[in-house]
Give the backbone structure.
Amino acid sequence: MTYIAYIFDNSDDFTIRKNLAVYNLTVGCGVMTGSILGGVAYSYVSQFYNPMYSINLMLIISSILRFSVSPLFLTIKDTRSKLK
Amino acid sequence: MDKISKNSRGSTLSLYLVYGTIGALAATLITGLITGSNTELIREFFLISGLMLVGSAYLSRKIETDTTLEERGVKSTSLLKRFLATVFLFNLVLSLAWPIFPLAQVYKFHMNDENIAILSVETGVTTILFQRIVAKLTDTKRRLTLFLGSALFTIYPLSYALSNSIYIIYITNLASGFTNAVGIR
């Protein structure tokens, strides 16, 4: 709900539908690209290591990447914050 | 939804989330109780699910809307572009682990249908429990909520990688209520 609340508060009557559509498209593109890359990366890694090690390695890399990207949300600007 | 939630985004939007989650939880429990371990029955439930989706798509045409016609060529603000770039990047790294989770569930934890059902129901229940907290945070500290909602996603792959016990997975899955409430549309 927080993502949608952000889009609502940072759009006007003319842009809101387009922004929601672009948001859904962005999520879809990100998820599709990430899933494909994850699958390809696992196939590559599992050529060199045993399956269990490959699974653990991929999961740890994923954790590091997830945590590295999340602080970016603190840097975005929010119109609602300015109003308060 | 934009207009009716104008003064209290979090609490109004969370109501939709709660009703949606209750519906999903009820459907999951009904399907689980009827099918059990009988995989033969899964086909009928997929069929019913598909038909209900078509029905709900038809019903959505009946919803009354109060919209302003959009001008052609309207561009998103730079504010939103930065947000969308972050969303893209986060969803990309989020889904990198998605093909690995089922592998870990099967080959590492040897999960059965009962374990998966417990995780699924736990996610639904905790999403309902967390919605009030997330609603309040969404209205007061939005950027922090977005950060926490995304940073908490770290613990799932980490727990799958470092733990050998399914009970640790159950415990870490309690956080899915928070991350779902932040992220679910």
